[in-house]
Every structure is written in structure tokens, then in C-alpha cells.
Amino acid sequence: MKKIIVFSWLIVHLFNATVKADEGMWLPHLLGEQVYADMVKKGLKLTKEQLYSINNNSIKDAIIIFGGGCTGEIVSKEGLVFTNHHCGYDAIAAASSVAHNYLKDGFWAKTKQEEIYAKGVHAQFLVKIEDVTAQVNEAIKTIKPEELATKLSGVLTELAGKLVTKTANEGRIASFFKGNQFLLFVYERYKDVRLVGTPPESIGKFGGDTDNWEWPRHTGDFSIFRVYMSKDGKPAEYAADNVPFASKSFLPVSVKGLKDGDYTMIFGYPGGTNRYETSYGVKLKTDIENPNLVELRDVRLKHMFNEMKNDPAVKIQLAGNYAYVANYWKFFDGESKQLLKYKVYELKQKQETEFLAWAKGKPEYETIFSDLEKVYANWRPYAKHRVYINEGILGSPVLAMAASLKALETTLSNTNAKPADITAAIDAAKGQYARFIKAENVASDRNIVASILQLFYKNVEAAQQPKAFFADLKNMFGDLNADLTYTNFSKSLFESSLLLNESKWNAFIEKPDTAALRKDIAYKTATAFTSNFSNNYAKYSQEFAGKNFALNNKYLKGILEKNIKSKLYPDANSTMRVSYGNVKSYEPRDAVKYSHICTLNGIMEKYKPGDYEFDIPEKLVELAKNKDYGQYLDKTVGDVVVSFITTNDITGGNSGSPVINAKGELVGLAFDGNYEALSHKLAFDKNLNRTICLDVRYLLFVVEKLGGATNIIQELDIRKM
Ligand code: ARG
After folding, report:
1. Measured over all CA atoms, what is the biggest interatomic distance in the chain, rounded to whole angstroms?
2. Which DSSP helix (H) or strand (E) runs through 361?
3. Whether 86 is catalytic
4. Can you give the pLDDT at residue 7?
5. Distance (Å, rounded) from C-alpha 203 to C-alpha 201?
6. Is the Cβ–Cβ distance between 194 and 81 less than 8 Å?
7. CB–CB of 328/651 below 8 Å?
8. Whole-structure pTM over 0.85, yes or no?
9. Atom of ligand 1 minimally distant from the CA of 209
10. For position 20, what pLDDT does the model report?
11. Cα separation of 245 and 700, whole Å?
């Protein structure tokens, strides 16, 4: 990317600011005087060094990447971690069985011996951040801009590997402002993390998907883990004699409570936003991408739910995947609605017109939008098809498994493949299969396959369909417009594919043979679709990605140049950020005003005995009835406060993030965003955007009064004043 040079104005941007209230996920090491001054103006009582320091312990040292996609915070000197229930969900489900159902009944370790190793859950600590823009630009100078979309990540991984040499550390280079700046993040990864406590799901996921992404909200969305290290104090794989992590820094916990207007700050790892998205991207999303994704997920979820609701074993088996799919099913549906409601497309067009006025006479920028228009027009006819592959065909576990075997087939049929390549491909297939068969629920998947194929036939452009597949289907199973055709086909797929028969699979993978694989009905079905797409349409997808990246890269370069005097924050990209704001009520629509808090009494109002989403444990009902609140009563409110909302700017990945008061104490855990601001990835609305936070006093109340885990309470540094 020759044209990308490190301009000193990039650095200027990150240091000088005219700050917009509440909006922005800031890099904690580059707050600059103006952002920091604004934090202080809003109420912050800490120094910059207390927030982020390389040489001294600071809040940054208490914040971890939890399990790859969430945030957690250290709350004791022995590595105790608070995060969300939905972040610990897979680990809790994995530790559960029908006999020891921690998902359903909760779990509280009363001693360290009782803590349960959560395989695969890692804790990553940030060691330092370095600007490596010059090195990256050097490494990519011979790559064409349109090739960067596919090549950049490989270059960044390779360079990070070269730059980080200490064996215990790992590096990741993240791209900022769409490839206009690059920072290296160095982490230390701890692989022995253990489950310490979780409320029953009826508390941790109270309100389920009905209440997900909504305020008012009464979910006790927390779980508790502990990081372990080797006896000599290093990051280590699991070992029975590992010892609790000796925390450099941990957050004290405040039980004083919050008022409307109080300062709040949230540290964490927001996954992704696209605030500089163009009008073209917004339109593609609302016209094609979101509605098709939602329709396909809708079908999958219905079939899964039908099997889960009556069988506790299936519920445990599918719970994690179901929650994952459901979360963004509701998100993307709401996102489209809000993007349209707030006219975000028109808003972006207006910004583009302004940009063009500024760009007049600057040849580098003048044609960005006319070029983008062509790029989007070329891609648009195939966009739905791609969603149908990714969310449809690959949304069926068995078809996704089958499609993944294409790699094995390719290796086996390559006469030049080395024995080591073949062994590697076989091992990969074995690993894939082990995960698949453990998670496979035949009853739901059979219905998913039938529905997805039928939807594909009905909705994807006829000219783009795999014609031979549907011709065969018609010959063998009849009318392509009849439901029964698809149900019968799916039934026969599940009866005869070697993927659904473990002994046939074992025999196959011991001596894999391409002829047998090519004959398999699941393999034939999956690859009919994926090969049709990759042979005929993937080129358009790549061309679109390449040109879109290059044009957006230029657009962002222009935006930075145009706004040289004001501070722009970079989009979220799974790197550590801090956002600051305050507790605040809001008015979602005409005549409605939402309070800034929800209470235990509100849980009782929503309580529906026996309901899938709104039941609660008997013991919580008792505690509420007897007003047995202990030290967690909010005296002003006269009840236990369950949750509160703030104006902080966060997004997915921030789940589990600490909500910190002006003095640096933990007051809550961020766990969701509100429905009215589901367009927040593309546009921040300062009137309507709210972060939904668990009040830490409700967390402590549940731990102590419901779980009886006073050991956990005693481990914390609780501040009452
Ligand atoms: N919406 C939350 C987030 O993305 C996840 C909530 C999980 N709960 C649920 N009912 N699916 O952070």
C-alpha cells in the first residue's frame, strides 16, 4: 500500500481533541490532554497514570480479554475474575451434565479445591502497546491496494511474530482507521482459568431472548472465574498444582451505589464498529445482508428450540450455540430497524456530500464515491447468495462439517501432496468431526437441512443456483415447491451419510478414500452449493472486498486530513478501550421515560413460575418477599438495585467489562446495549445510546444470599464509603 505514509497528523489526531460527549471508545494510552481533561470535568478523580501506565500498576492491569471474545476484570489479589454469565456460558454448559446441572442450578465453589477447570477459556493481559505504522507500511509497500483486503492480515501476523520475541508474550497488530495506522499489542496469555461461581441460568439469563438487547432489564448477567499460574509465577497450561494468579492490580468493589448523573467509565475490549461506513454499505446491509441473515437464523433457531425445550440433555448440548446465534439474530433485526428509523443512510450521504465539497480539487479523493457506487453495483447481485451460503448452507452443522471435508478431498487428490500434508489434513478432519459429533443434534439439524434447501431454492436467484443438484432432487424426490420433497431428502441424507454413522466414519477416516467421500450424500449436497459459489461467484466477492477496502482506506485518510483539528476516535477492533460517560435515564419514544435503574421488585413483577425465560429460583422469591437484602439494600430506593444504564459508548466484546466510578472502584458489569440504539455499530446516537450494566451490589447479593458463598465476598476489597 504505497500511498499510505505515516503522517504526523495521525499522531496529532490521537493526542489533540475537541471531544464529543459520551461518544468514543478511546485508546487508554493515547487519551491526550483534552480527553483526559473532559473525563475530569465529568467527575473523574484519578490521574492518567492510574488509568494506564507501563511502569506502574494501573487499572489497565486489572482488565483481561476473557475467553477470546469478552472482557473480564480482576477483583482480588488472587486472580479472581468477574465477567458476564453469557461470557462464561459455554464453560458453564461444558461443566454441566443432567446430574450436575450448573447451568440450571448454579454453582458455588466454597474452597479453591472445588473450582472447576474451564478448558479452552484463556485470560489475556495487556503488556504494552507500540505504534508500528512505519514497519507495516514498509512490509506492504509492494502490495497493490486492492490486494490488501486478503493479504494484510497475513502480513500483520507475520510481522507481529517477528516483533514479539519474548516466549511468554504474544503480539497482535491491529489496523486503525481502515489501514491508516497500525499498533502492536503485546499480551500475556494464561490458559488455566477455573470456574468459581455462577448463578442459575434463571438469574444469569433471566428474561432470555425476549429481554435481550432491551431496557428495562433484570438479568443477573455475571459469572466468576479465577486465573491460575505456575508455581514459579508464569503463564501456564492447566496443572493441578498451579497456584492462583498473583494480581499486580485489582479493582476494589463499591457498595455505595450510584445516582442519575454519576460519572462512569468502562474499560474493555469492544470487538468492532464501523462508524465511518459509507452510505453504500448501510444500504446493502438494510436491503440485503441483514434481512436474509435474520430469516435464515430464524429458521435455525426455531428448529433448535423445539428440541431444547423438552429435553434437558439437548438443552445443555445446544445452549451455547443457540445463545450465540440468537444474540445476533435479534441484533441484526433491530439494527436494520433502527438504521431505517434514524435515516442513517441519508445521514451518511450528507457526510459524503460534505466530504466531496472538501475534496474538490484533490484528485486523490474526488472519485471515491463514484468508484464505490460501481463497486457496490457490481457486487449487489451476488450478496444474497453469499448470505445463503454462510448463514444457510453452513448454518446446518452437518452440511458445515461436510463442506469442511473439501480440504481433505483436495489434499488427497493432489498427486504432489506430501505424506505430512495428508496426515495433517486427516488430523484436521478428525478434530473437526470430534467437535461436530459431540454437538450434533440430529432431530434439529434434519429440519434445518430441509428448511434451508427449500429457502435456497425459493429465494436465491435461479440463474445462480447449483442446477444439477436441484435437477437431481426433482428427479428423485419430486416437486421442488413442495415441503415434502425437502423433508424426505433430508431424512434420506441423515439415514445414509457416513457423517451420521460413527462406525462408518471411523472406517472411512482410517483409510480415507476420495471416491467414497465424493459419493457421500452430505458431502455431495454441501459441496454442490459451496463449489458452485466458489467456482462462479467468489471472484465477485473478492473483487468487492479488495476494492471496497482500498477505497475506504483512502476515504479514511481523507477524513483524517479533513478533520486535522478535531480528535477522532478509531473504530473498535478488539483492542483495549476506555469510554466515559454517566448514569442516565432516557426517553425511548413519545410520552415514555425510562428510569436509570431496575430493582428486585421489578424481577418479581416479571416473574412467571414455570416459564422458560421468566422463572426464578424459589430462594430468590423468598429473599424478595422477606426483604432480606443484607448490606445490599439501596436505602434511597428501598430495594436492591439490579441494573442501571449509562451513556457509555461500548459494543459487543465489551461484555463483562467493569463499570468503574470516579474513584476507580467497580460499581457494575456492562452486559448489553439498548434496543433503541442497535444501529450503534454504524452511528452513535447521543440521545438514545445506553449501556446496560449489572449493579455490582446485586451480584454480591446473589453470591452471598442465594449462593451462600461468603468466601467470595471475603476475598474482595469492598468499599462502603
Ligand atoms: N446482547 C448481549 C451481548 O451481546 C448478550 C446477551 C446474552 N443473552 C441472551 N439472552 N442471549 O453482549
Report:
1. 77
2. none
3. yes
4. 43
5. 5
6. no
7. no
8. yes
9. 10
10. 67
11. 22
Cα–Cα distance, 614 to 207 (Å, whole number): 5
Question: Is 221 annotated in the active site?
Answer: yes
* Site of grid cell 413483577: 605
Give the residue, by CA position, lying nearest to ligand 1 atom 4. Answer: 652
pLDDT tens string 538-557: 999 999 999 999 999 999 99
> Which among 536, 493, 514, 505 has a CA at the least distance from the CA of 389?
536
406: amino acid identity, one letter:
K
**Alpha carbons 2 and 19: distance in angstroms, whole number:** 32
Catalytic hit among 175, 444, 655, 657: 655
Whether the bond between 244 and the residue before it is cis, its omega within 30 degrees of 0, is no
Residues 210-263 have pLDDT tens digits of: 999 999 999 999 999 999 999 999 999 999 999 999 999 999 999 999 999 999
- Judged by DSSP in three states, 38 sits in helix
Cis bond upstream, residue 28 (ω within 30): no
Q: What stretches in the chain show pLDDT beneath 50?
A: 1-17
Query: With contact defined as beta carbons under 8 Å apart, do 531 and 518 qualify?
Result: no
Give the containing element (helix H, strand E) for 182.
strand 181-190
Cα of 212 vs centre of ligand 1, distance in Å, is 6
Residue 291: Cβ within 10 Å count: 16
Name, in order, each residue with C-beta under 8 angstroms of 296's C-beta and a sequence gap of 6 or more: 387, 388, 391, 392, 395, 452, 455
pLDDT, residue 567, reads 82
In sequence order, the 6+-apart residues with CB closer than 8 A to the CB of 605 are none
For residues 660-689, one letter each, b for 16 or more C-beta atoms within 10 angstroms of the residue's C-beta and e for the rest, the string is: bbbbbbbbbbbbbbbbbbbbbbbbbeeebb
Residue 98: CA count within 13 A, CB half-sphere = 6
Domains observed in the chain: 8-79+86-210+221-253+268-273 (no CATH), 274-395 (no CATH), 396-536 (no CATH), 578-719 (2.40.10)
pLDDT of residue 19: 59
Nearest Cα residue to atom 7 of ligand 1: 86
Cα separation, 317 vs 322, whole angstroms:
10
Helix, coil or strand: residue 202: helix
- CA-CA distance, 459 to 385, in Å (whole number)? 9
Find, among 690, 707, 560, the residue nearest to 266 by Cα. Answer: 690
> Rounded to the nearest 10 degrees, how much is the dihedral formed by the CA atoms of 107, 306, 318, 402?
170
Q: Give catalytic status of residue 655 as yes or no.
A: yes
Strands 123-131 and 181-190: antiparallel
Distance from the alpha carbon of residue 478 to the mean position of ligand 1, in angstroms: 42
Q: Which of 319, 324, 325, 323 is nearest to 103 (CA)?
A: 319
Q: How far apart are CA 112 and CA 247, in angstroms?
A: 16
CB 238: neighbour CB atoms within 10 A? 13
Residues near 492 by beta carbon (within 8 Å), at least 6 away in sequence: 521
DSSP code of residue 26: B
Contact 238, 191 (CB under 8 A): yes
For 163, the grid coordinates are 516483533
| Of residues 114, 113, 126, 130, the one with CA closest to residue 72 | 126
